[in-house]
């Protein structure tokens, strides 16, 4: 998982800002008002299921689609009506869009040629960028003679050779097989760090977003529902949708009661102190990740650690980890617990009561629905 922003990165200037941006087609609103800041030099992933509006945002940033309302700012200047060819961005598409009749070198040089750059400059830059993406020995080959991963790197080389301020990537790894996709994820993130260019990456794959991103913007039905680091979104979702969509989460019913100063939440895990909320009887959901539980070993608890009892219903071996399916506080409250296999309590039998250790810090409370 990518590390959280350093102090310096937190204060990076914004390279792109979306201010109240919407998109409608006739009577269909595909994008609700979106406010989003993209930091200079960051790897931002826009994540969401099909139809969530993520590609619409990318196309509006790139100039392929005009916004219905709102503004798109580049370092503070409004570029909402600036045509594609005047925006200092390049886009890498899912199908790569390489010219089949051109060699690798000529594909990469294309953007420089149409900008009428000197031949010596083109040769130097193409050579340098092919070295950056490890394709120097493929310069005279044609796209049909390359593997999927090599074609992907040609598309990336063509995007970066003109030194754009932002590179937009529209699900560029979707067509690759699983092993090659993982390899390209590592390559792409390493490339972004080396060239220090802002990447805006579109995907519907949560693991891809976690492994590559500095920050993630989560979309749902045209709404931007949460923006944060992978750690923030994974461990502290702000809505039921994010909790369900972004990895596996245990969701348990919870009820808020207030005494005027401090809120007390009742859930199958027990009582939880939280700051007072507006409603005195709010229906909530408690979210906690399967790996946030551990089998209680009887040792003294530390800090905010708590213990809860649950009944074991199933055990699933997953290799390095084992998943326990349990019922807690009654048969209707099901939870999943994922623990290292060597700590999974092989002596346990189905139907046994299990003591689970967990921390209050790992709990999030969400509005229901």
Automatic annotation (TrEMBL):
GO terms for molecular function: ATP binding. The keyword Nucleotide-binding applies. SMART domains: AAA. It comes from the Bacteria. Keywords: ATP-binding, Nucleotide-binding, Transport. Residues 16-246 form the ABC transporter domain. Pfam families: ABC_tran, TOBE_2. The keyword Transmembrane helix does not apply. Belongs to the ABC transporter superfamily. This is ABC transporter ATP-binding protein.
